[in-house]
Backbone:
């Protein structure tokens, strides 16, 4: 975490990194890392940013949606919305909502 005004590092953590077709996004105090977007997979990591800038992993390993199927390249979203701790994902057979602030998203 950086202070955009000064460039000062406020917090740093290690964990899952984006790879092929993956990305990071920050919404509110949550960080989503889509690890890999190839071949329709949706492996993700979730992190919470505390007020002091510390970063806490909400899952130690890649999380995969337990049902709903993957995606295909024709409907990869630009990003998955995170609203009040819940993520909305378009998958093969519909749109699903998961609460990422639970012990296991």
Residues:
């Amino acid at each position: 975490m950086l202070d955009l005004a000064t460039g000062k590092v406020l917090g740093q953590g290690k964990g899952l990194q984006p790879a092929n077709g993956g990305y990071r996004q920050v919404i509110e105090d949550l960080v989503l890392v889509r690890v890999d977007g190839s071949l329709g997979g949706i492996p993700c990591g979730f992190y919470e940013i505390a007020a002091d800038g510390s970063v806490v992993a909400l899952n130690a390993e890649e999380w995969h949606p337990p049902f709903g199927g993957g995606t295909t390249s024709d409907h990869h979203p630009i990003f998955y919305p995170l609203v009040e701790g819940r993520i909305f994902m378009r998958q093969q057979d519909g749109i699903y909502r998961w609460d990422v602030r639970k012990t296991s998203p």
Summary: The CA atoms of residues 49 and 55 lie 5 Å apart. Residues 23-99 form one domain. The chain has a mean pLDDT of 79.
